[in-house]
Amino acid sequence: MASIETQTESSRLQRHNIKRTSEAQKALIPNQDSEDLTIKSCEFEIFGIVHDVSFRHYTLRRAQKLSIRGWCMYTQHKTIKGLIQGYTKSFEAMRIWLRYTGSPTSRIDKCVFGPTEELKYFSYDAFTILNFLQQQ
């Protein structure tokens, strides 16, 4: 039996911008399965106009937004190299962002991803920007 909301309860929800999820909407929400909790990792290199266009800083912000871990840095060949690690959905979203979006004034000519690995644990605590002197 569906619960009946009082006018007061309905007003409170509306005032706080809270929306109830209907049973039909709940059916559309995917269940958490083990694939969502798989940690994926890969290296990348981006070619094009990626220097002096804040590419690393936009990458850092996007990684933080998606809970991606790893690093990125400029190279002496005027590319950006890095490594990303994250849960499947965030990982794929970050790959798409790196390949097609980047910073607003950048131009991505080519984005090369290394092999994707599945990890049991994250290797990094956060996403960071490395300098030339910190190269691995």
Automatic annotation (TrEMBL):
<dbReference type="Pfam" id="PF00708">
    <property type="entry name" value="Acylphosphatase"/>
</dbReference>
<dbReference type="InterPro" id="IPR036046">
    <property type="entry name" value="Acylphosphatase-like_dom_sf"/>
</dbReference>
<feature type="domain" description="Acylphosphatase-like">
    <location>
        <begin position="41"/>
        <end position="131"/>
    </location>
</feature>
<protein>
    <recommendedName>
        <fullName>acylphosphatase</fullName>
        <ecNumber>3.6.1.7</ecNumber>
    </recommendedName>
</protein>
<keyword id="KW-0378">Hydrolase</keyword>
<dbReference type="InterPro" id="IPR020456">
    <property type="entry name" value="Acylphosphatase"/>
</dbReference>
<dbReference type="GO" id="GO:0003998">
    <property type="term" value="F:acylphosphatase activity"/>
</dbReference>
<dbReference type="InterPro" id="IPR001792">
    <property type="entry name" value="Acylphosphatase-like_dom"/>
</dbReference>
<comment type="similarity">
    <text>Belongs to the acylphosphatase family.</text>
</comment>
